[in-house]
Automatic annotation (TrEMBL):
<dbReference type="InterPro" id="IPR029062">
    <property type="entry name" value="Class_I_gatase-like"/>
</dbReference>
<protein>
    <submittedName>
        <fullName>DJ-1/PfpI/YhbO family deglycase/protease</fullName>
    </submittedName>
</protein>
<comment type="similarity">
    <text>Belongs to the peptidase C56 family.</text>
</comment>
<keyword id="KW-0378">Hydrolase</keyword>
<feature type="domain" description="DJ-1/PfpI">
    <location>
        <begin position="4"/>
        <end position="178"/>
    </location>
</feature>
<dbReference type="GO" id="GO:0006508">
    <property type="term" value="P:proteolysis"/>
</dbReference>
<dbReference type="InterPro" id="IPR006286">
    <property type="entry name" value="C56_PfpI-like"/>
</dbReference>
<dbReference type="InterPro" id="IPR002818">
    <property type="entry name" value="DJ-1/PfpI"/>
</dbReference>
<dbReference type="Pfam" id="PF01965">
    <property type="entry name" value="DJ-1_PfpI"/>
</dbReference>
<keyword id="KW-0645">Protease</keyword>
<dbReference type="GO" id="GO:0008233">
    <property type="term" value="F:peptidase activity"/>
</dbReference>
Length: 188
C-alpha cells in the first residue's frame, strides 16, 4: 500500500497550487487525499498579474472534489502534508478541526510543504516559530510576526518544512519537498 499524503484546502485555493502537487506526488507513487471543511466539490481560483494592477487578480479556476472533511482526517494515516495557497488559508486558519490536524503534523515532525499564503495556516498553530521560511512576498511581515525568518527565495527548506513563494516556483518547491519525502517517508 502506498504512503499517503494529505492536502488541506478549501474554496478559493489557487488551482495550480493544489493540482500541481496533487499530480506530481501521485506520479511519484504516493496516495494523495484532499481534505476540506466538508466533502464537496471545491471551487479553486486562478491568480495572475494584469498590467497596471498593483497586486494579483483572481479569476474562477478548476473545481475538484474533496476526498474527506477535516473532521474525518486521521493524521496518523499520513506521512506528509501539503498546504496550498490562494485565499483559502485566510479563512481556513479559523477552523479548529484543521488546526488540530496541522498541529499533529508539526508535533510528529512529519514533512510539510507550504506555498504562497499557505503559511498563514501553519502560523496559526505555531508551526513557524524559529524557522526559516518563504511565502508570497506580501506575507513577509506575517511570517516575521509568526516568529519565522523570511527569505525571498524559490524554495526554503528548514528541517522537514519546505516552503515556496507561489506557483511559478513549483519545480523548485516540489524538487526540495521530494528530497525530504524520499528521506523521511519513501514510497513503499
Amino acid at each position: 500500500m502506498a504512503a499517503k499524503i494529505l492536502i488541506v484546502t478549501g474554496d478559493a485555493a489557487e488551482s495550480l497550487e493544489v493540482l500541481y502537487p496533487y499530480q506530481r506526488l501521485r506520479e511519484e507513487g504516493y496516495d494523495v487525499h484532499i481534505a476540506a471543511p466538508a466533502r464537496k466539490t471545491l471551487q479553486f481560483v486562478v491568480h495572475d498579474f494584469e498590467h497596471g494592477f498593483d497586486t494579483y487578480t483572481e479569476k474562477p479556476g478548476y473545481t475538484w472534489p474533496a476526498d474527506l472533511a477535516f473532521s474525518e482526517v486521521d493524521p496518523g494515516q499520513y506521512v506528509a502534508l501539503v498546504v496550498p495557497g490562494g485565499r483559502a488559508p485566510e479563512y481556513l486558519r479559523n477552523d479548529p478541526e484543521l488546526r488540530k490536524v496541522l498541529k499533529s503534523f508539526f508535533d510528529a515532525d512529519k514533512p510539510v510543504a507550504q506555498i504562497c499564503h499557505g503559511p498563514l495556516l501553519t502560523a496559526a498553530v505555531g508551526g513557524l516559530a524559529g524557522r526559516r521560511v518563504t511565502a508570497y512576498p506580501a506575507l513577509e511581515l506575517d511570517m516575521q510576526a509568526a516568529g519565522a525568518t523570511f527569505q525571498d527565495a524559490e524554495a526554503v527548506v528548514d528541517g522537514t518544512l519546505v516552503s515556496s513563494r507561489a506557483w511559478p516556483d513549483h519545480s523548485g518547491w516540489m524538487r526540495e519537498f521530494l528530497t525530504v519525502l524520499r528521506a523521511k517517508a519513501p514510497v513503499t
